[in-house]
Specification:
With about 220 residues, this protein is of the alpha/beta class. The chain is built from 9 helices and 8 strands. Helix 6 packs across helix 7. The protein starts with a strand and ends with a helix. The relative contact order is 0.19. The protein binds adenosine-5'-diphosphate (ADP) and zinc ion (ZN). The site of zinc ion has 8 residues, from loops.
């Protein structure tokens, strides 16, 4: 039962890779970003307060985020592993997580800023099944429709240039220090660099799997 964290700047492909690793490793994926987007849709008061942060590219407060994580971890069948996509994002969150689960490895995605900006501005997501596309290099057959389920594709409201810049800034300031946190704790790292916009997800996924195998985690 493997417990992983996938870590990287916005637009580094965390969600894309996590959804593919899910099948290969037979684990559950918990994406706090996806969960928050669902919460926003419900229009509850908690959803509304989450919206305030997400739409500005700011982090949702730690306590709210940790409660959401705990609830979702509790739903995972006993004995099944998981990948956390988008959690933790602060040292506080990492410490809270440590109290309830022991992470086996951190998958660290290293991606230059120019790729992030290009990817996010051309990202499209299926409203129905959540599949992630890119109009430049991970093109759906039709720009408006999901290949997998025929659902409509949309652009995330926080994928605008202004909010993207804010998200990168928040990542540098609040999330990068987490790498030191995991290094200090001697949690093993699988580091994967992506230096080309056109690298297909499969290539990166294989590199991640090879790294996990070396650690006897895949
Ligand atoms: P990305 O990594 O591409 O920025 P995500 O879907 O992971 O996108 O997150 C979208 C937004 O959801 C973040 O900008 C933030 O507002 C919120 N969010 C997601 N995960 C967390 C977290 N662990 N802590 C605080 N806020 C979070
Ligand atoms: Zn779909």
């Amino acid at each position: 039962m493997v417990k992983l964290v996938i870590f990287g700047p916005p637009g580094s492909g965390k969600g894309t890779y996590a959804s593919r690793l899910k099948e290969r490793l037979n684990v559950e994926v918990i994406s706090t970003g996806d969960i928050f987007r669902e919460m926003i849709k419900t229009g509850t008061s908690l959803g509304e307060s989450v919206r305030e942060y997400v739409e500005k590219g700011l982090l949702v407060p730690d306590e709210i985020t940790f409660n959401v994580l705990k609830e979702n971890l509790a739903k995972i069948p006993k004995g099944k592993g998981f990948i956390l996509d988008g959690y933790p994002r602060t040292v506080w969150q990492a410490q809270a997580l440590d109290r309830i689960a022991k992470i086996d490895a951190v998958i660290h995605l290293i991606v230059p800023d120019w790729i992030i900006v290009k990817r996010l501005s051309s990202r499209r997501i299926c409203q129905n099944c959540g599949a992630i596309y890119n109009l430049l290099f991970l093109k759906p057959k039709n720009d408006m429709i999901c290949d997998k389920c025929g659902g409509p594709l949309y652009q995330r409201s926080d994928d605008t240039p202004e909010v993207v810049r804010k998200r990168i800034e928040v990542y540098e300031k609040q999330t990068q220090p987490l790498l030191a946190y995991y290094r200090d704790k001697n949690v093993p790292f699988v580091e994967v660099k992506c230096e080309k916009l056109e690298t297909p997800p499969e290539v990166i996924v294989e590199e991640i799997l090879a790294g996990l195998k070396k650690l006897n985690l895949a």
